Amino acid sequence: xxxxxxxxxGRVWSQYSFVFVLFxxxxxxxxxxxxxGNAFKWSHIAAILSSQNTVIVGTIAxxxxxxxxxxxxxxxxxxxxxxxTGVTIIVFNTTNSILLxxxxxxxxxxxxxxxxxxxxxxxxxxxxxxxxxxxxIYRSLTLSVVxxxxxxxxxxxxxxxxxxxxxxxxxxxxxxxxxxxxxxxGFSIPYITFIFLLMAILFIIISKKTKYGKTIxxxxxxxxxxxxxxxxxxxxxxSVFILTGICVGVASMLQACxxxxxxxxxxxxxxxxxxxxxxxxxGVSMAGGKGNMVGVIFGALSYTTINFIIVSIPGLSVDIQxxxxxLVLIIVILIQTVGxxxxxxxxxxxxxxxxxxx
Amino acid sequence: MTIxxxxxxxxxxxxxxALSDIHFSVEEGEIHALLGENGAGKSxxxxxxxxxxxxDAGTITFDGxxxxxxxxxxxxxxxIAFVHQELNVINDLTVADNIFLCRELTRFGLLRQKxxxxxxxxxxxxxxxxxxxxxxxxxxxxxxxxxxxxxxxLYVDAKLLILDEPTTALSNNEIDHLFGILQKLKxxxxxxxxxxxKMPEIFAIADRYTVLxxxxxxxxGYIKDTTPHEITSAMVGSxxxxxxxxxxxxxxxxxxxxxxxxxxxxTGIDLQVKKGEIVAFTGLAGCGASELMQTMxxxxxxxxxxxxxxxxxxxxxIVRFMKNGVAMLPAxxxxxxxxxxxxIMENFYLAEHELSGRRPFIxxxxxxxxxAAQKDSLHIKAGDSADSILSLSGGNQQKVFLARWLNIGxxxxxxxxxxxxxxxxxxxxxxxxxxxxxxxxxxxxxxTLEIPEIQKVADRCVVFYEGRIVKTFQHAEVNERDVMLYSxxxxxxxxxxxx
Lengths: 358, 499
What we know:
By secondary structure, chain A is mainly alpha-helical.
């Protein structure tokens, strides 16, 4: 087979499209900043790195990517985040223990994910419907609790869970860790960004270096073949929901430390869509079976940057922002999916011409 | 009166002659059996008749008119209906809706449902079919769906119906019911082309027959003047079996035992297989051999009896069978073996990982060594093991999946139709490999429809008919004609005819 320049470029594009996407979007961002009369500086990038869209949504997107690679979907992550953060803050307020707080976050997330997973795996229900249901359930459960609970436990009297600033560990969690930065030279990177990156590295290792990771791809690529190779398909499908729950748990720790509170009625709304968008920008196939977990880091950064661009365009009203977000998303996906189709059509036409000659 | 006459029909695909100079005629009011092995040219002939593909040469005369270049629409309008083997009814509509699909009775663009129901009722009454026109098709039995499809064809006043293996999914009672209706329609002057492999049915229902073999017309005549043996011989011919690779081997102890084993599509299977033996399962499509094989690997649930490997009873999940050294290469490679988004290497090691899950990390070097060993011994022609599995030819893909199972150290290998979609050269190689596995003390069971394949490798051939073992041949006894006689159950039919 001949591999021309176009072929090589095509392959690199299809495998690492997420790098190009981020690069192009970054250029766009730099352009908008300078057209506003400002210089593009490290602080702009640091803002992207520490944004909750990168850190919190990005962490959730790691699990979401696994779910999507198996050919499923999880719509409940935004509501899960609210529920987990609620529990996490309650545990902190009542125990003042970082360890118990973190444990509570991860366990609550895992349980939420397990509920989704078991309903999908054993109930044989479509993940879309199951997680649509739990999306409503998790949020409304949290809402109904926050209105009745003692403010001494919830930390707030205004339908919110808030970390109690009287607790001795508050200072460390919020000021040192949650909003603190690691500075070196002229650069600084927020601590919580490292948590996201650590999680990302963990998920990259799972996906590339473990036997379990390969089963996720196999199930998404061809479920029947996977089953007949001895893979326990039901378990794999359940496990990715649990892993997503754990990601949400970690994200809820970050939410608590970075933001300090969570409002069940409005926090985490549409986060499932943001997470899915990050995964898609990462080049993960919605049909399952394909996707590089490294891309999810880039996907999350790209998504955040798109938001920043839109916000920094002067004169763009808040109402129209989602339109632009949607447009950018559609254009990127169009390039990713339509590109190969056009290529295939060209190849087919070429074949037909050759056949015609013969 | 002759309703259909096809003369000198020829067709080539690419370089191969699919049909050459075929003669085929159907009388009005007769049931004509069109017979031949897979690939004999039956479907090609029927596709030409119904206008799906054009013939290269030949004439078609139907109902007194010539059709030099028939199209699908023309032939439908002329009164030819094709009832396909896989039913084309829509499960989520009612029976009446299905009959009137695409030819709905409407007034001002709205359905005249009462009228449709009344006409459907009338149609069923005329035919003696007992189906409720308001029922959902999903609730019908398979035989009723089959009848519904026939009724649909008759509603448009088809004169000639092509029934492609209409009884595959039917029970004996249902077949009787269907045949009753066919007889009735025949008396009304409808004609049928009946495609089937099952001798008892052909002798029960057909008036005349035509046999094709390798795209050529072999014989034609009245069923009452022939015997199942004669027809089978005509279908099979004296086939040339090329180079013999079979060598008799010393067999070991019995290692695999089935006792009264039952499951989906087969019942009461008793079988003992020795270590190092190669056993072939064969039978018509739907005879239950493939289902048996899948059940022996845990892919389908067993419903009764027991399977013992080395004296140990086995059931449960696929992994449990794998742990006990059982492996299955499933039929239909693309659907059941290939993981299309993965590399050759990943496709290779997936199964082994399920047994070595205690060590959760992939040891790259170890996997490379394992793959290299299998690649050498199986002669897999592949470039980089990181290339996509789809970059390989069918034969080499199949070898990768063989390697997948040898890699788990399985010693009972179940191969379901292993040479499907594999070219001739690679087939030969797979036969040699199968023999070498047996030589090395592995036990092999292969399920195949190709009898020359059995003659090449099998120590024993087990013939299935409708979910039961009807005959076991030793290697020397295997010949195409006898195996065909048993797999079509022609033996019983001729015995019945004698008594």
